[in-house]
Amino acid sequence: RPVLILFRDDLRIHDNRALSAAADTGAPVIPVYIRDREPARRDLGAARLWWLHHSLSELAGALQKLGAHLVLQAGPTATTLHTLIEETGATAVFWNRRYDPACIELDSSLKLDLRNRGLHVESFDGHLLHEPSLTKTGGGTSYKVFTPFWRSLSGHIEPRDPVDAPKALKPYPRKLASDDLKDWNLLPTAPDWAKRIREAWTPGETAARARLDDFLGDAIKGYAERRDLPSVNGTSRLSPHLAFGEITPFQIFRALRSKTIDAPTGDVDTFRKEVGWREFSYHLLFHNPDLATQNFNPSFDAFAWENDGKLLKAWQKGQTGYPIVDAGMRQLWQSGWMHNRVRMITASFLIKHLLVDWRKGEAWFWDTLVDADPANNAASWQWVAGSGADASPYFRIFNPILQGEKFDPKGDYIRRFVPELSELPDKYIHSPWAASKDVLDAAGVKLGTNYPVPVVDHKKARDRALQLYKRLKGPS
Ligand code: FAD
Protein backbone atom coordinates (compact mmCIF):
# COMPACT_ATOMS: atom_id res chain seq x y z
CA ARG A 1 0.00 0.00 0.00
CA PRO A 2 1.28 3.48 -0.92
CA VAL A 3 2.40 6.43 1.19
CA LEU A 4 1.70 10.12 0.53
CA ILE A 5 4.11 13.03 0.59
CA LEU A 6 2.44 16.39 0.90
CA PHE A 7 4.28 19.31 -0.74
CA ARG A 8 3.62 22.88 0.46
CA ASP A 9 6.39 25.47 0.95
CA ASP A 10 9.08 22.92 0.04
CA LEU A 11 9.07 22.62 -3.73
CA ARG A 12 12.28 20.60 -4.05
CA ILE A 13 13.52 17.03 -4.19
CA HIS A 14 16.96 17.64 -2.60
CA ASP A 15 17.26 18.03 1.16
CA ASN A 16 13.63 17.09 1.41
CA ARG A 17 13.54 14.84 4.45
CA ALA A 18 9.82 14.11 4.09
CA LEU A 19 10.36 12.90 0.54
CA SER A 20 13.35 10.82 1.56
CA ALA A 21 11.40 9.27 4.44
CA ALA A 22 8.56 8.41 2.07
CA ALA A 23 11.04 6.81 -0.35
CA ASP A 24 12.73 4.86 2.47
CA THR A 25 9.48 3.07 3.32
CA GLY A 26 9.95 1.07 0.10
CA ALA A 27 6.23 1.53 -0.62
CA PRO A 28 4.87 3.25 -3.72
CA VAL A 29 5.06 7.03 -3.22
CA ILE A 30 2.28 9.42 -4.22
CA PRO A 31 3.41 13.07 -4.18
CA VAL A 32 0.56 15.54 -3.69
CA TYR A 33 0.22 19.32 -3.88
CA ILE A 34 -3.11 20.70 -2.73
CA ARG A 35 -4.07 24.24 -3.61
CA ASP A 36 -5.95 25.01 -0.45
CA ARG A 37 -7.13 28.57 0.03
CA GLU A 38 -6.89 28.00 3.77
CA PRO A 39 -8.86 30.97 5.14
CA ALA A 40 -6.41 31.24 8.02
CA ARG A 41 -3.59 31.80 5.56
CA ARG A 42 -3.20 34.84 3.31
CA ASP A 43 -3.40 33.93 -0.34
CA LEU A 44 -0.29 34.60 -2.38
CA GLY A 45 0.11 37.81 -4.37
CA ALA A 46 0.07 37.69 -8.17
CA ALA A 47 3.87 37.58 -8.54
CA ARG A 48 4.08 34.63 -6.17
CA LEU A 49 1.30 32.82 -8.01
CA TRP A 50 3.31 33.22 -11.23
CA TRP A 51 6.30 31.75 -9.41
CA LEU A 52 4.24 28.91 -7.95
CA HIS A 53 3.10 27.83 -11.41
CA HIS A 54 6.65 27.48 -12.71
CA SER A 55 8.02 25.95 -9.56
CA LEU A 56 5.30 23.29 -9.47
CA SER A 57 5.89 22.58 -13.11
CA GLU A 58 9.59 21.93 -12.48
CA LEU A 59 8.85 19.87 -9.38
CA ALA A 60 6.44 17.69 -11.34
CA GLY A 61 9.17 17.07 -13.94
CA ALA A 62 11.76 16.17 -11.30
CA LEU A 63 9.37 13.76 -9.57
CA GLN A 64 8.46 12.20 -12.91
CA LYS A 65 12.15 11.43 -13.47
CA LEU A 66 12.21 9.68 -10.11
CA GLY A 67 9.19 7.61 -11.12
CA ALA A 68 6.29 9.42 -9.44
CA HIS A 69 3.47 11.51 -10.78
CA LEU A 70 2.68 14.73 -8.86
CA VAL A 71 -1.03 14.81 -8.04
CA LEU A 72 -2.46 18.34 -8.13
CA GLN A 73 -5.77 18.94 -6.44
CA ALA A 74 -7.64 22.02 -5.28
CA GLY A 75 -9.78 22.11 -2.15
CA PRO A 76 -9.55 21.89 1.61
CA THR A 77 -6.48 19.86 2.56
CA ALA A 78 -8.14 17.50 5.05
CA THR A 79 -11.07 16.41 2.87
CA THR A 80 -8.89 16.16 -0.24
CA LEU A 81 -6.51 13.91 1.66
CA HIS A 82 -9.33 11.78 3.07
CA THR A 83 -10.56 11.07 -0.45
CA LEU A 84 -7.08 10.23 -1.70
CA ILE A 85 -6.45 7.95 1.26
CA GLU A 86 -9.74 6.11 0.72
CA GLU A 87 -9.07 5.76 -2.98
CA THR A 88 -5.49 4.50 -2.65
CA GLY A 89 -5.43 2.82 0.75
CA ALA A 90 -2.40 4.92 1.70
CA THR A 91 -0.97 4.07 5.11
CA ALA A 92 1.23 7.07 5.86
CA VAL A 93 1.54 10.79 5.18
CA PHE A 94 4.83 12.69 5.31
CA TRP A 95 5.43 16.45 5.19
CA ASN A 96 7.95 19.13 6.07
CA ARG A 97 7.03 21.49 8.87
CA ARG A 98 5.73 25.01 8.34
CA TYR A 99 6.33 27.64 10.99
CA ASP A 100 3.81 30.40 10.75
CA PRO A 101 1.21 30.04 13.47
CA ALA A 102 -1.83 29.70 11.18
CA CYS A 103 -0.17 26.81 9.39
CA ILE A 104 1.06 25.22 12.60
CA GLU A 105 -2.51 25.10 13.83
CA LEU A 106 -3.75 23.60 10.58
CA ASP A 107 -0.98 21.02 10.49
CA SER A 108 -1.40 20.03 14.13
CA SER A 109 -5.10 19.33 13.71
CA LEU A 110 -4.44 17.50 10.44
CA LYS A 111 -1.87 15.31 12.15
CA LEU A 112 -4.30 14.45 14.92
CA ASP A 113 -7.11 13.75 12.48
CA LEU A 114 -5.00 11.44 10.30
CA ARG A 115 -3.55 9.60 13.27
CA ASN A 116 -7.07 9.04 14.58
CA ARG A 117 -7.82 7.43 11.23
CA GLY A 118 -4.96 5.04 11.84
CA LEU A 119 -2.38 6.59 9.54
CA HIS A 120 1.29 7.03 10.27
CA VAL A 121 2.07 10.77 10.08
CA GLU A 122 5.55 12.23 10.30
CA SER A 123 6.87 15.76 9.86
CA PHE A 124 10.43 16.99 9.28
CA ASP A 125 12.63 20.08 9.47
CA GLY A 126 13.95 21.88 6.41
CA HIS A 127 12.52 25.39 6.33
CA LEU A 128 14.53 26.64 9.32
CA LEU A 129 17.83 25.84 10.99
CA HIS A 130 16.25 26.06 14.43
CA GLU A 131 13.01 24.85 15.97
CA PRO A 132 11.40 27.99 17.39
CA SER A 133 9.59 26.02 20.07
CA LEU A 134 12.86 24.58 21.40
CA THR A 135 15.14 27.63 21.23
CA LYS A 136 14.97 29.57 24.49
CA THR A 137 16.96 32.13 26.46
CA GLY A 138 18.71 31.09 29.69
CA GLY A 139 15.58 32.32 31.49
CA GLY A 140 13.41 29.95 29.47
CA THR A 141 11.67 32.62 27.40
CA SER A 142 11.76 33.34 23.68
CA TYR A 143 14.34 35.74 22.27
CA LYS A 144 13.43 39.36 21.57
CA VAL A 145 16.87 40.63 20.59
CA PHE A 146 18.75 39.38 17.55
CA THR A 147 22.35 39.41 18.83
CA PRO A 148 21.93 36.96 21.75
CA PHE A 149 19.59 34.87 19.61
CA TRP A 150 22.16 34.53 16.87
CA ARG A 151 25.07 34.11 19.28
CA SER A 152 23.28 31.24 20.92
CA LEU A 153 22.20 29.62 17.68
CA SER A 154 25.41 29.97 15.72
CA GLY A 155 27.55 29.15 18.75
CA HIS A 156 25.78 25.94 19.67
CA ILE A 157 24.86 24.25 16.47
CA GLU A 158 26.50 23.45 13.22
CA PRO A 159 23.48 22.81 11.04
CA ARG A 160 23.03 19.23 9.86
CA ASP A 161 24.17 18.22 6.39
CA PRO A 162 21.49 18.29 3.71
CA VAL A 163 20.09 14.95 2.60
CA ASP A 164 20.41 13.80 -1.00
CA ALA A 165 17.42 13.46 -3.29
CA PRO A 166 16.10 9.90 -3.42
CA LYS A 167 17.57 7.91 -6.33
CA ALA A 168 14.11 6.71 -7.33
CA LEU A 169 10.56 6.51 -6.03
CA LYS A 170 8.57 3.31 -6.26
CA PRO A 171 5.77 4.20 -8.67
CA TYR A 172 2.12 3.91 -7.75
CA PRO A 173 0.67 1.68 -10.46
CA ARG A 174 -2.72 3.35 -11.00
CA LYS A 175 -3.39 6.73 -12.59
CA LEU A 176 -4.92 9.16 -10.13
CA ALA A 177 -7.10 12.15 -10.93
CA SER A 178 -5.04 15.32 -11.04
CA ASP A 179 -5.83 18.90 -12.05
CA ASP A 180 -4.08 20.44 -15.00
CA LEU A 181 -1.77 23.14 -13.64
CA LYS A 182 -2.91 25.47 -16.44
CA ASP A 183 -6.47 25.32 -15.13
CA TRP A 184 -5.39 26.90 -11.85
CA ASN A 185 -4.88 30.16 -13.76
CA LEU A 186 -1.83 31.16 -11.78
CA LEU A 187 -0.27 32.95 -14.75
CA PRO A 188 -1.34 36.41 -15.89
CA THR A 189 -3.49 36.60 -19.00
CA ALA A 190 -3.84 39.97 -20.75
CA PRO A 191 -2.05 42.19 -19.97
CA ASP A 192 1.03 40.03 -19.57
CA TRP A 193 2.58 42.01 -16.72
CA ALA A 194 5.04 39.23 -15.95
CA LYS A 195 7.48 40.01 -18.79
CA ARG A 196 10.03 41.79 -16.59
CA ILE A 197 9.58 39.26 -13.82
CA ARG A 198 10.32 36.50 -16.31
CA GLU A 199 13.45 38.31 -17.40
CA ALA A 200 14.62 38.75 -13.82
CA TRP A 201 13.89 35.32 -12.39
CA THR A 202 13.92 31.60 -13.07
CA PRO A 203 11.75 29.80 -10.54
CA GLY A 204 12.52 26.27 -9.45
CA GLU A 205 15.01 24.17 -7.57
CA THR A 206 17.57 23.94 -10.37
CA ALA A 207 17.75 27.71 -10.68
CA ALA A 208 17.94 28.07 -6.89
CA ARG A 209 20.99 25.81 -6.71
CA ALA A 210 22.60 27.58 -9.67
CA ARG A 211 21.97 30.96 -8.03
CA LEU A 212 23.65 29.81 -4.82
CA ASP A 213 26.64 28.52 -6.80
CA ASP A 214 26.92 31.75 -8.77
CA PHE A 215 26.73 33.84 -5.64
CA LEU A 216 29.33 31.79 -3.78
CA GLY A 217 31.61 31.86 -6.79
CA ASP A 218 31.45 35.60 -7.16
CA ALA A 219 29.36 38.18 -5.27
CA ILE A 220 30.06 36.75 -1.82
CA LYS A 221 33.46 38.40 -2.13
CA GLY A 222 32.82 41.88 -0.78
CA TYR A 223 29.29 41.00 0.36
CA ALA A 224 29.68 42.79 3.70
CA GLU A 225 30.06 46.11 1.91
CA ARG A 226 28.43 45.62 -1.47
CA ARG A 227 25.21 44.23 -0.02
CA ASP A 228 24.23 47.83 0.71
CA LEU A 229 24.61 49.09 -2.86
CA PRO A 230 21.37 48.73 -4.81
CA SER A 231 22.95 49.31 -8.24
CA VAL A 232 25.26 46.28 -8.05
CA ASN A 233 24.51 42.59 -8.00
CA GLY A 234 25.90 42.29 -4.49
CA THR A 235 23.43 39.97 -2.79
CA SER A 236 22.38 36.37 -3.37
CA ARG A 237 18.76 36.97 -4.50
CA LEU A 238 17.93 33.64 -2.92
CA SER A 239 14.93 35.07 -1.06
CA PRO A 240 12.13 33.83 -3.37
CA HIS A 241 13.79 30.42 -3.62
CA LEU A 242 13.89 30.25 0.18
CA ALA A 243 10.29 31.39 0.44
CA PHE A 244 9.13 28.55 -1.82
CA GLY A 245 11.46 26.07 -0.20
CA GLU A 246 13.34 25.41 -3.43
CA ILE A 247 16.50 25.55 -1.36
CA THR A 248 17.04 25.11 2.37
CA PRO A 249 19.20 27.02 4.82
CA PHE A 250 20.91 23.67 5.51
CA GLN A 251 22.06 23.55 1.89
CA ILE A 252 23.26 27.16 2.13
CA PHE A 253 25.20 26.57 5.34
CA ARG A 254 26.71 23.37 3.96
CA ALA A 255 27.89 25.27 0.89
CA LEU A 256 29.34 28.01 3.11
CA ARG A 257 31.40 25.36 4.94
CA SER A 258 32.88 24.23 1.64
CA LYS A 259 36.63 24.63 1.36
CA THR A 260 36.37 25.91 -2.19
CA ILE A 261 34.81 29.24 -1.23
CA ASP A 262 37.31 31.94 -1.86
CA ALA A 263 35.99 34.84 0.22
CA PRO A 264 37.11 36.68 3.36
CA THR A 265 35.63 35.30 6.60
CA GLY A 266 33.98 38.66 7.26
CA ASP A 267 31.90 38.37 4.09
CA VAL A 268 30.90 34.77 4.82
CA ASP A 269 29.98 35.61 8.43
CA THR A 270 27.91 38.61 7.37
CA PHE A 271 26.00 36.45 4.91
CA ARG A 272 25.40 33.76 7.54
CA LYS A 273 24.11 36.45 9.84
CA GLU A 274 21.63 37.72 7.25
CA VAL A 275 20.25 34.23 6.90
CA GLY A 276 20.18 34.34 10.71
CA TRP A 277 17.79 37.33 10.53
CA ARG A 278 15.39 35.07 8.67
CA GLU A 279 15.61 32.58 11.53
CA PHE A 280 15.03 35.38 14.02
CA SER A 281 11.98 36.68 12.12
CA TYR A 282 10.45 33.21 12.27
CA HIS A 283 11.32 32.97 15.94
CA LEU A 284 9.42 36.23 16.53
CA LEU A 285 6.46 35.13 14.41
CA PHE A 286 6.26 31.75 16.11
CA HIS A 287 6.05 33.38 19.52
CA ASN A 288 3.91 36.33 18.34
CA PRO A 289 1.32 34.96 15.93
CA ASP A 290 -0.15 38.43 15.26
CA LEU A 291 3.16 39.91 14.11
CA ALA A 292 1.72 41.00 10.72
CA THR A 293 -1.30 42.71 12.22
CA GLN A 294 -0.51 43.88 15.76
CA ASN A 295 2.19 46.20 17.04
CA PHE A 296 4.75 44.14 18.91
CA ASN A 297 5.12 47.16 21.19
CA PRO A 298 1.53 48.02 22.17
CA SER A 299 2.36 51.65 22.95
CA PHE A 300 2.29 52.10 19.15
CA ASP A 301 -1.44 51.32 19.14
CA ALA A 302 -2.00 54.98 19.97
CA PHE A 303 0.00 56.28 17.02
CA ALA A 304 -1.87 58.94 15.03
CA TRP A 305 -1.56 57.55 11.51
CA GLU A 306 -2.91 59.86 8.83
CA ASN A 307 -3.37 57.13 6.20
CA ASP A 308 -3.83 59.54 3.31
CA GLY A 309 -4.98 57.37 0.39
CA LYS A 310 -3.46 59.65 -2.26
CA LEU A 311 -0.05 59.55 -0.63
CA LEU A 312 -0.22 55.76 -0.31
CA LYS A 313 -1.00 55.53 -4.05
CA ALA A 314 1.88 57.87 -4.93
CA TRP A 315 4.21 55.64 -2.92
CA GLN A 316 2.89 52.42 -4.48
CA LYS A 317 3.36 53.81 -8.00
CA GLY A 318 6.82 55.27 -7.39
CA GLN A 319 5.57 58.85 -7.81
CA THR A 320 6.62 60.52 -4.56
CA GLY A 321 9.14 62.93 -6.07
CA TYR A 322 11.96 61.34 -4.01
CA PRO A 323 14.08 59.52 -6.59
CA ILE A 324 15.47 56.72 -4.40
CA VAL A 325 11.99 55.94 -3.05
CA ASP A 326 10.47 55.97 -6.53
CA ALA A 327 13.26 53.81 -7.97
CA GLY A 328 12.69 51.21 -5.24
CA MET A 329 8.93 51.11 -5.65
CA ARG A 330 9.28 50.76 -9.41
CA GLN A 331 11.88 48.01 -9.07
CA LEU A 332 9.37 46.18 -6.89
CA TRP A 333 6.50 46.65 -9.34
CA GLN A 334 8.56 45.63 -12.35
CA SER A 335 10.60 42.75 -11.01
CA GLY A 336 8.77 41.59 -7.86
CA TRP A 337 11.85 42.29 -5.75
CA MET A 338 13.52 45.26 -4.12
CA HIS A 339 17.01 45.66 -2.74
CA ASN A 340 17.15 45.43 1.08
CA ARG A 341 18.65 48.90 1.62
CA VAL A 342 15.89 50.43 -0.50
CA ARG A 343 13.22 48.36 1.27
CA MET A 344 14.31 50.10 4.46
CA ILE A 345 14.29 53.54 2.84
CA THR A 346 10.88 53.12 1.16
CA ALA A 347 9.31 51.59 4.27
CA SER A 348 10.64 54.36 6.50
CA PHE A 349 9.36 56.94 4.02
CA LEU A 350 5.85 55.50 4.00
CA ILE A 351 5.67 55.23 7.76
CA LYS A 352 7.49 58.32 8.90
CA HIS A 353 7.29 60.85 6.07
CA LEU A 354 3.78 59.97 4.91
CA LEU A 355 2.40 58.75 8.26
CA VAL A 356 0.78 55.72 6.67
CA ASP A 357 0.30 52.72 8.96
CA TRP A 358 3.09 50.15 8.45
CA ARG A 359 0.43 47.45 7.95
CA LYS A 360 -0.59 49.05 4.65
CA GLY A 361 2.99 48.91 3.45
CA GLU A 362 3.34 45.34 4.65
CA ALA A 363 0.21 44.39 2.69
CA TRP A 364 1.51 46.05 -0.50
CA PHE A 365 4.84 44.23 -0.21
CA TRP A 366 2.96 41.00 0.45
CA ASP A 367 1.00 41.43 -2.78
CA THR A 368 3.91 42.42 -4.99
CA LEU A 369 7.09 40.67 -3.77
CA VAL A 370 8.15 37.35 -5.27
CA ASP A 371 9.80 36.64 -1.91
CA ALA A 372 6.87 37.77 0.29
CA ASP A 373 7.38 35.89 3.49
CA PRO A 374 5.05 35.86 6.51
CA ALA A 375 7.91 36.23 9.00
CA ASN A 376 10.48 38.40 7.22
CA ASN A 377 7.96 40.87 5.87
CA ALA A 378 6.09 41.43 9.12
CA ALA A 379 9.21 41.54 11.30
CA SER A 380 11.01 43.91 8.93
CA TRP A 381 8.08 46.35 8.68
CA GLN A 382 7.80 46.43 12.47
CA TRP A 383 11.56 46.89 12.70
CA VAL A 384 11.41 49.97 10.48
CA ALA A 385 8.32 51.37 12.21
CA GLY A 386 10.05 51.08 15.57
CA SER A 387 7.10 49.07 16.90
CA GLY A 388 8.87 45.72 16.67
CA ALA A 389 11.18 43.59 18.75
CA ASP A 390 14.80 44.71 18.56
CA ALA A 391 13.55 47.52 16.32
CA SER A 392 15.20 50.50 14.78
CA PRO A 393 14.75 53.33 17.36
CA TYR A 394 11.71 55.48 16.60
CA PHE A 395 13.84 58.60 16.09
CA ARG A 396 15.76 56.94 13.25
CA ILE A 397 14.14 58.50 10.21
CA PHE A 398 15.92 57.60 7.00
CA ASN A 399 16.75 60.72 5.02
CA PRO A 400 15.93 59.71 1.44
CA ILE A 401 18.36 62.22 -0.03
CA LEU A 402 21.36 61.32 2.14
CA GLN A 403 20.63 57.60 1.86
CA GLY A 404 20.57 57.95 -1.93
CA GLU A 405 23.82 59.92 -1.98
CA LYS A 406 25.53 57.41 0.28
CA PHE A 407 24.40 54.14 -1.27
CA ASP A 408 23.81 55.16 -4.90
CA PRO A 409 26.34 57.98 -5.25
CA LYS A 410 26.30 58.15 -9.02
CA GLY A 411 22.58 57.54 -9.27
CA ASP A 412 23.00 54.38 -11.38
CA TYR A 413 20.11 52.66 -9.61
CA ILE A 414 17.86 55.67 -10.01
CA ARG A 415 18.69 56.07 -13.69
CA ARG A 416 17.72 52.43 -14.27
CA PHE A 417 14.28 52.65 -12.70
CA VAL A 418 13.41 56.34 -13.08
CA PRO A 419 14.45 56.96 -16.68
CA GLU A 420 12.85 60.39 -16.76
CA LEU A 421 15.71 61.56 -14.52
CA SER A 422 18.47 59.73 -16.35
CA GLU A 423 20.01 62.85 -17.94
CA LEU A 424 20.32 64.78 -14.67
CA PRO A 425 23.87 65.43 -13.42
CA ASP A 426 24.92 63.27 -10.43
CA LYS A 427 24.74 66.32 -8.18
CA TYR A 428 20.95 66.59 -8.56
CA ILE A 429 19.94 63.01 -9.16
CA HIS A 430 18.77 62.62 -5.55
CA SER A 431 17.19 66.07 -5.27
CA PRO A 432 15.95 67.24 -8.68
CA TRP A 433 14.01 70.11 -7.08
CA ALA A 434 17.33 71.69 -6.08
CA ALA A 435 18.47 72.02 -9.70
CA SER A 436 18.05 75.28 -11.61
CA LYS A 437 15.54 75.54 -14.43
CA ASP A 438 18.39 75.49 -16.97
CA VAL A 439 19.76 72.24 -15.57
CA LEU A 440 16.31 70.65 -15.51
CA ASP A 441 15.55 71.81 -19.04
CA ALA A 442 18.85 70.45 -20.34
CA ALA A 443 18.00 67.08 -18.77
CA GLY A 444 14.43 67.11 -20.11
CA VAL A 445 12.97 67.09 -16.59
CA LYS A 446 9.77 69.03 -16.03
CA LEU A 447 8.92 68.87 -12.36
CA GLY A 448 5.21 68.47 -11.87
CA THR A 449 4.82 67.29 -15.47
CA ASN A 450 7.06 64.33 -16.27
CA TYR A 451 8.35 63.82 -12.71
CA PRO A 452 6.49 64.78 -9.53
CA VAL A 453 7.44 67.56 -7.16
CA PRO A 454 8.05 65.99 -3.72
CA VAL A 455 4.74 64.96 -2.14
CA VAL A 456 6.00 66.17 1.27
CA ASP A 457 8.84 68.39 2.42
CA HIS A 458 11.53 66.23 3.99
CA LYS A 459 12.35 68.47 6.94
CA LYS A 460 8.76 69.28 7.86
CA ALA A 461 7.74 65.63 7.54
CA ARG A 462 10.64 64.56 9.70
CA ASP A 463 9.83 67.03 12.48
CA ARG A 464 6.16 66.07 12.41
CA ALA A 465 6.97 62.36 12.68
CA LEU A 466 9.37 62.97 15.55
CA GLN A 467 6.75 64.90 17.47
CA LEU A 468 4.13 62.22 16.95
CA TYR A 469 6.53 59.48 17.93
CA LYS A 470 7.57 61.37 21.05
CA ARG A 471 3.96 61.61 22.15
CA LEU A 472 3.72 57.84 22.41
CA LYS A 473 4.13 56.56 25.90
CA GLY A 474 7.53 54.97 26.23
CA PRO A 475 8.29 53.72 22.74
CA SER A 476 11.58 51.89 22.68
P1 FAD B 1 20.81 38.40 0.81
O1 FAD B 1 21.46 39.64 1.29
O2 FAD B 1 21.54 37.60 -0.18
O3 FAD B 1 20.50 37.54 2.11
C1 FAD B 1 20.35 36.12 2.07
C2 FAD B 1 19.06 35.70 2.74
O4 FAD B 1 19.05 36.12 4.10
C3 FAD B 1 17.82 36.34 2.13
O5 FAD B 1 17.38 35.64 0.99
C4 FAD B 1 16.84 36.28 3.28
O6 FAD B 1 16.24 35.02 3.40
C5 FAD B 1 17.73 36.49 4.49
N1 FAD B 1 17.73 37.91 4.85
C6 FAD B 1 18.54 38.89 4.40
N2 FAD B 1 18.25 40.06 5.00
C7 FAD B 1 17.23 39.83 5.85
C8 FAD B 1 16.49 40.63 6.76
N3 FAD B 1 16.75 41.93 6.94
N4 FAD B 1 15.49 40.05 7.47
C9 FAD B 1 15.21 38.73 7.33
N5 FAD B 1 15.90 37.92 6.48
C10 FAD B 1 16.89 38.46 5.75
N6 FAD B 1 12.72 39.29 3.07
C11 FAD B 1 12.00 38.26 2.60
O7 FAD B 1 12.55 37.19 2.35
N7 FAD B 1 10.65 38.38 2.41
C12 FAD B 1 9.99 39.54 2.69
O8 FAD B 1 8.76 39.60 2.53
C13 FAD B 1 10.75 40.65 3.14
N8 FAD B 1 10.15 41.85 3.39
C14 FAD B 1 10.91 42.91 3.83
C15 FAD B 1 10.28 44.13 4.09
C16 FAD B 1 11.03 45.21 4.54
C17 FAD B 1 10.34 46.52 4.85
C18 FAD B 1 12.42 45.08 4.72
C19 FAD B 1 13.25 46.25 5.21
C20 FAD B 1 13.05 43.87 4.48
C21 FAD B 1 12.31 42.77 4.04
N9 FAD B 1 12.92 41.52 3.78
C22 FAD B 1 12.16 40.48 3.34
C23 FAD B 1 14.34 41.29 4.13
C24 FAD B 1 15.36 41.52 3.00
O9 FAD B 1 15.13 42.76 2.39
C25 FAD B 1 15.32 40.43 1.93
O10 FAD B 1 15.39 39.16 2.54
C26 FAD B 1 16.51 40.55 0.97
O11 FAD B 1 16.49 41.81 0.35
C27 FAD B 1 16.42 39.45 -0.06
O12 FAD B 1 17.44 39.59 -0.99
P2 FAD B 1 18.63 38.54 -1.08
O13 FAD B 1 18.09 37.15 -1.09
O14 FAD B 1 19.49 38.96 -2.21
O15 FAD B 1 19.36 38.81 0.31
Characterization of the model:
This protein is mainly alpha-helical and 476 residues long. The protein has 3 domains: 3-127, HUPs (Rossmann fold, 3-Layer(aba) Sandwich), CATH 3.40.50.620; 129-162 and 198-287, Alpha Horseshoe (Serine Threonine Protein Phosphatase 5, Tetratricopeptide repeat); 298-471, DNA Cyclobutane Dipyrimidine Photolyase, subunit A, domain 3 (Orthogonal Bundle), CATH 1.10.579.10. Helix content is 46%, strand content 5%. It is built from 20 helices and 5 strands. The protein has helices at residues 17-24, 46-66, 77-88, 101-116, 146-156, 195-200, 205-217, 223-226, 239-243, 249-256, 265-287, 309-317, 323-335, 340-353, 358-368, 374-385, 400-407, 412-417, 437-443, 458-471, and strands at 3-7, 29-35, 71-74, 92-96, 120-124. A 5-stranded parallel beta sheet has the order 3-2-1-4-5, sandwiched between helices. The longest helix is centred in the middle third of the chain and has 23 residues, at 265-287. It is globular and about 80 Å long. Bound molecules: flavin-adenine dinucleotide. This is Deoxyribodipyrimidine photo-lyase.
Summarize, please.
With 476 residues, this protein is mainly alpha-helical.
Looking at this protein, list some descriptive labels:
476 residues; mainly alpha; Rossmann fold; Serine Threonine Protein Phosphatase 5, Tetratricopeptide repeat; DNA Cyclobutane Dipyrimidine Photolyase, subunit A, domain 3; 3 domains; five-stranded parallel β-sheet; 20 helices; 46% helix; binds flavin-adenine dinucleotide
